[in-house]
Design a protein that fits this description.
Metallo-beta-lactamase, Chain A, 2 domains, 6-stranded mixed β-sheet, 6-stranded parallel β-sheet, globular, binds zinc ion
Length: 303
């Protein structure tokens, strides 16, 4: 999405290069690889350059403010102060505190651009610490009965939460190679994670034959383990795994509603996931709400 401010063009989590690109967090679908002038947090800058090997200059133009959004380390929303009022672009966010992450505290704004990945009432997530306890207990039970377990989650964000959960169990933890670099940047940024041995090395040294272990990986690997997936979609979907736990890095439906109430905007634009359905719900509550489809790239088409 692009935003025209006077004669300036700001890219909001777009893959295209704009005059200035705001990058809310380091997940690949939010990052322009060709961006030269970038607004983002210190943590996101480090994660983006470490993950995608790109160089750019950081900027923080007047009137722009970053608000931590609790999705992954360094993720932020963008709050824009202008003569027409305040505009808040949430990027991906979660209002829940989770281990080393603080939940998003939404500020007030007149215009809200809201990510609605889980904007459907079937996605109201159970208490995070209940899910952590239940899933960790499940993994421990398998290990104690002699079975190894692969915990499946995206290599940036979810994997570090899983590493942090799994290192508390008294069993060896191995990680997929793609997680290694991200863990080291997390550690550099103050999130203490153990120095886990990568999958390839553990395999080469025959460690998988030494009894039950945990593997943290974004995908199933060629090793005999049970598999447990960690995703918000586990609320409704069946996976080809032995277990699935609804540990999400996004806001659930009620949390999205609560966020809109707290921001209290005069208009809401929804993006991602259940954007049409969520905009309709907001209209039923008497709010002005429009879902943005991918071909409608400019907000000025709506306001
Ligand atoms: Zn994301």
């Amino acid at each position: 999405m692009k935003l025209k401010l006077g004669d300036r063009e700001i890219g909001l989590d777009t893959r295209q290069r704009c005059e200035i690109n705001f990058i809310s967090h380091a997940h690949s679908d939010h990052v322009s690889r060709s961006a030269k002038r970038v607004i983002c947090s210190d943590e996101t800058a480090l994660l983006v350059s470490g993950r995608y090997h790109i160089e750019f200059e950081r900027e923080m133009p007047e009137g722009f403010e970053l608000v931590p959004s609790g999705h992954i380390l360094g993720s932020t929303a963008l709050l824009l102060h202008s003569d027409q009022g305040r505009l808040l672009f949430t990027g991906d966010f979660s209002p829940r505190d989770r281990l080393f992450l603080k939940g998003f505290k939404p500020p007030k704004a007149e215009i809200l651009i809201l990510e609605t990945t889980f904007g459907d009432p079937r996605y109201n997530f159970p208490d995070t610490y209940e899910v952590i306890k239940e899933s960790t207990d499940w993994v421990r039970t398998q290990l104690e009965s002699g079975r190894s377990v692969t915990t499946l989650g995206y290599s940036l964000g979810k994997a570090q939460v899983l590493c942090s959960m799994m290192e508390k169990l008294k069993f060896p933890v191995y990680i997929h190679g793609s997680i290694l670099k991200m863990n080291s940047i997390y550690s550099q940024l103050g999130v203490e994670l153990r120095g886990f041995i990568p999958y390839a090395e553990a395999r080469k040294r025959g460690y998988f034959d030494n009894g039950p272990f945990i593997l943290v990986s974004p995908q199933k690997m060629a090793v005999d383990t049970l598999n447990a997936k960690f995703t918000g979609w586990a609320m409704t979907m069946q996976f080809d795994t032995d277990a699935a736990f609804p540990l999400s890095d996004h806001a659930g439906f009620d949390e999205l509603m609560e966020t809109v109430r707290k921001v209290d905007p005069s208009v809401v634009f929804t993006v991602h996931g259940f954007k049409e359905e969520f905009a309709e719900r907001l209209r039923q509550e008497g709010r002005r709400a429009v879902s943005l489809s991918s071909h409608q790239m400019k907000l000025r088409d709506f306001v």
